[in-house]
């Protein structure tokens, strides 16, 4: 994006496009898996608090992150290598602001059936599986919270999940909205806006959402809203 803004040139090389596809898929799949892991972490913390330190020890957490990263890399490399078997015409344009695997396959000039089969199979497994894991975890969490006798305990449990629910809604909401917009509309402007929200706004909002649990960040936000700033 910075190169495009500086050079006022929206073109990208074939190698650069494939590299971009690979990195976008790695980080998208990794975030999906990590959101599922975080949902499981909150499920253990709320539904099995006494066993939390035993279940979610450092070795197990590291293993979950490592497996998520390896699966994301293997999946991205598979789709990137499958793109190498396709042939493309010159001077192609996509509706997205970046090289996204669905859009790259659409503009190929050769048979794309195998690519589509592998792509939709991978999305159904690696994308939908973490999403349903999150749904299942929060079903158990809500059931456990409703059985809590004290209002303070319920509030504390909900506050523990608040930031994660916000990020899940933002990530999956913008991702699904991006693909739905490309399916039902042919407007390049709407598609570009959807892709920008999915790739830029969501990652920028993540640290802001998580840091709002910090008391200093909350105080600073209140100061900004009131139009006052205190330096120490």
Q: Secondary-structure element sequence? A: HHHHHHHHH
Oligomeric state of the chains in view? single chain
Q: Mean of residue pLDDT? A: 79
Shape descriptor reads: globular
When the domains are counted, the total is: 1
User: What fold name goes in the CATH topology slot?
Assistant: Rhopdopsin 7-helix transmembrane proteins
Brief rundown of the structure:
The chain has about 230 residues and is an all-alpha fold.
Report what the structure shows:
This protein has a single domain, classed as Rhopdopsin 7-helix transmembrane proteins (Up-down Bundle). The protein has helices spanning 2-7, 14-47, 52-55, 58-84, 101-106, 113-146, 151-184, 188-211, 215-226. It starts with a helix and ends in a 6-residue tail after the last helix. Helix 2 packs parallel to helix 6 (113-146) and helix 4 (58-84) runs antiparallel to helix 6 (113-146). With 232 residues, it is an all-alpha fold. Helix content is 78%, strand content 0%. The longest helix is centred in the first third of the chain and has 34 residues, at 14-47. It has nine helices and no strands. The model has no long low-confidence stretch (mean pLDDT 79).
């Amino acid at each position: 994006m910075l190169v495009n803004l500086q050079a006022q040139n929206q073109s990208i090389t074939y190698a650069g496009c494939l590299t971009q596809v690979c990195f976008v898929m790695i980080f998208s799949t990794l975030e999906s898996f990590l959101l599922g892991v975080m949902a499981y972490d909150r499920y253990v913390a709320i539904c099995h608090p006494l066993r939390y330190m035993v279940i979610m020890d450092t070795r197990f957490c590291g293993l979950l992150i490592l497996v998520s990263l390896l699966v994301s890399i293997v999946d991205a490399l598979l789709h990137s290598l499958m793109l190498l078997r396709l042939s493309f015409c010159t001077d192609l344009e996509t509706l997205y602001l970046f090289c996204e695997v669905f859009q790259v396959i659409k503009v190929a000039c050769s048979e794309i059936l195998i690519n589509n089969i592998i792509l939709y199979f991978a999305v159904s497994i690696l994308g939908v599986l973490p999403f349903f894991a999150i749904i299942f975890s929060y079903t158990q969490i809500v059931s456990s919270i409703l059985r809590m006798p004290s209002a303070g305990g319920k509030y504390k449990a909900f506050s523990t999940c608040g930031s994660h629910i916000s990020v899940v809604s933002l990530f999956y909401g913008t991702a699904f909205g991006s693909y739905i917009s490309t399916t039902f509309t042919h407007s390049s402007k709407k598609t570009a806006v959807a892709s920008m929200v999915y790739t830029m706004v969501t990652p920028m909002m993540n640290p802001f959402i998580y840091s709002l649990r910090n008391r200093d960040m909350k105080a600073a936000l209140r100061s900004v809203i009131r139009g006052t700033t205190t330096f120490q």
